[in-house]
Write a structure and sequence with these properties.
By secondary structure, the protein is α/β, with parallel strands linked by helices. The protein contains 10 helices and 14 strands. An 8-stranded mixed beta sheet has the order 1-4-8-5-11-12-13-14, with helices on both faces. It is an enzyme of class 2 (transferase).
């Protein structure tokens, strides 16, 4: 087992190298499918202590990956998606904690997913790849923990969909996590969120280049569908105030073109984000991941009683929300907080002022990071 702890003056974890864990044991999935074997790509930062008691698992959101912090030797600008939070002296301090990031099953960053080769056919899985759920991700993450020699995590955390995974960890494996940190998330999606996800999926499914999910064999990518899905999603990640401040109604070229091209800076920005996303993300992974979001509901098997569902948890909790996050509003975090408190659990709750909307959990906000730092400092290892 290899670990990296390359401290640099700028508090970066430095150069990191992805690793791959191979699992030969078949896994049955919640949706009824199965995989005969699979691989998980992950990265680690810091050093696992002798008792293996200082491990922290970071779960990623929809388009995230295992690359949480640091950068690659051949791509010095390739900072991890939560590099502002994870590193020596940062809120999640790698001088104290051993941090793990893993690409979820069904992902497109190296873990087994629709782009991987199906051993039964010798071709990419494509449309044949089985549905995966949050519960499936948590189950395979436990196998990775066993592989790394970790019986219990000091903390499991994540934002958005990552926060849902952190919550599920505390319910599915209550003895294997001491602290659950659920940030900018909710115990289940609202009808509005499911609606947004469905429109995004339809953009992909209706793209002529989608080919029923088997576009790999045709040598094409459903670019237009991916672009539209990302453009729609990105609107929901920002607040109205953030859009107004960053773009307002500013015209790109100073005047109206009276056509259906790009007039406004916000339009240009959305086109840029859509084009960039379509250049690296897999359409099948997008479909699977948004469906996993929709299906997650710990209270489903408890007749909708969230308090009863949360009774399984034993961990202490940190729950955080952001005032302008209308996709996962503070009301949803408070719903979770009260459910945990009613079960006699220790809960720290931070409702943070931010103009950035849902994306706030990714940003370097002084009050947000101060709250995270304070909580991590009180975690005993």
């Amino acid at each position: 087992m290899l670990f990296w702890n390359m401290t640099e003056p700028n508090s970066s974890v430095g150069i990191v190298v992805p690793q791959t864990a191979h699992f030969d044991t078949q896994i049955a999935l919640k949706g009824g499918g199965s995989l005969p074997a699979y691989e998980l790509v992950y990265e680690t930062y810091g050093t696992l202590n002798a008792e293996a008691s200082n491990a922290v698992l970071v779960c990623h959101a929809l388009s995230g990956s295992h690359h949480v912090a640091g950068y690659y030797a051949d791509k010095p600008k390739s900072l991890g998606w939560w590099d502002n939070l994870v590193g020596p002296g940062k809120p999640l301090d790698t001088n104290k904690f051993f941090v793990i990031g893993v690409n979820n099953l069904g992902g497109c960053y190296g873990s087994t997913g629709p782009m991987s080769i199906n051993p039964a056919t010798g071709k990419p899985w494509g449309s044949a790849f089985p549905f995966v759920t949050v519960e499936d991700w948590v189950n395979v993450q436990t196998r990775l923990a066993d592989y790394l020699g970790i019986r219990q995590f000091a903390a499991v955390l994540g934002g958005s969909l990552g926060g849902m995974q952190a919550l599920d960890w505390t319910l599915r494996y209550p003895d294997r996590v001491r602290h659950g940190m659920v940030i900018a998330a909710a115990p289940k999606l609202s009808a509005e969120n499911i609606a947004f996800n469905e429109v995004a999926r339809q953009a992909i499914l209706s793209d002529p280049q989608f080919h029923g999910g088997d576009y790999y064999e045709h040598g094409v990518v459903p670019v237009n569908g991916l672009r539209l899905a990302r453009m729609l999603g990105h609107i929901t990640y920002l607040s109205d105030d953030a859009m107004a401040e960053k773009f307002g109604r500013r015209l790109r070229d100073g005047g109206h073109k009276f056509g259906f091209g790009v007039d406004y800076e916000i339009e240009s920005y959305l086109h840029y984000q859509g084009d960039k996303f379509a250049g690296f993300f897999d359409a099948n992974t997008y479909l699977l991941t948004t469906k996993a979001l929709d299906y997650f509901d710990p209270a489903f098997d408890y007749n909708g009683d969230l308090q009863a569902a949360l009774a399984r948890a034993k961990a202490d909790f940190f729950v955080a929300s952001f005032t302008t996050d209308w996709r996962f509003s503070p009301e949803r975090s408070r719903e979770l907080m009260f459910g945990l408190l009613h079960n006699g659990l220790n809960v720290s709750y931070a409702e943070l002022d931010s103009a950035a909307g849902h994306d706030s959990f990714l940003l370097d906000d002084v009050h947000y990071h101060a709250a995270m730092r304070a909580y991590f400092q009180n975690i005993e290892v």
